[in-house]
Write a structure and sequence with these properties.
With about 250 residues, the chain is α+β, with helices and mostly antiparallel strands. The chain has 2 domains: about 130 residues, Jelly Rolls; about 90 residues, Arc Repressor Mutant, subunit A (Orthogonal Bundle), CATH 1.10.10.10. Helix content is about 40%, strand content about 25%.
Amino acid sequence: MLVPASPTYQNRLLASLSETDLAQVRPYLEPVDLPLNTVLIEAGQPVAHATFIEAGLGSVIVSAGEGDRVEIGLFGRDGFACPALVLGSDRVPQQTFMQVGGHGYRIGAEEFRAIIDASPSFRGLLLRYTHTFLIQTAQTAHANATAPVQERLARWLLMYHDRQDGDELMITHEFLSMMLGTRRSTVTLALQLLEGARLIQARRGRIRVLDRAGLEGTAGDAYGPAEAEYERLIAPLCRRADRPLPHHHSD
């Protein structure tokens, strides 16, 4: 399957590239389907590809004892897997998998390293993204330590909402409990509180956002710093309640 000569990229990083950088990157982009639960990066194993999500949601998780897994970061069309490649490492101790199926592009790790070595501007863009992702993981750690589950849930729903079109979020209680590092019963109660406030409508396997502004108010300081930094350094990310999600196109 060949990449069209001038595709319109949904991935914010690819869409931000100049024609000069695109000319270097495009020949190596391989379209790839990314179904639910596809493992992008296996913990402790050499990273085979850099993957740029066009649609769907990737989750970076830490595995604890007895099979417990906790999310430490998420990304979709705002980013790529895995930033460690830009930092000079060929592996990471966390797994990255698709928690919402979709599709994207990938580049072989060897070719990817050659491209970023040849293009300081592309490398700089990816380093700026890595900076924003580190802020996101720091915010997640802070929220997990200090914020009530209801606030953390609102933040997570907003982050998912930012990375897709439409208001239907395809997610199960089981996944949410892993994302938030808490029990399913606790997640169910938090969902009921948000639904009672008419911020969301929860159904089996999906959640519909009804009141974006209300969710932002509930999330409080847990949501916003990483998103603001992404907008400052790369492109708008937030689907703010007062404006639609922006679309970006390659030159």
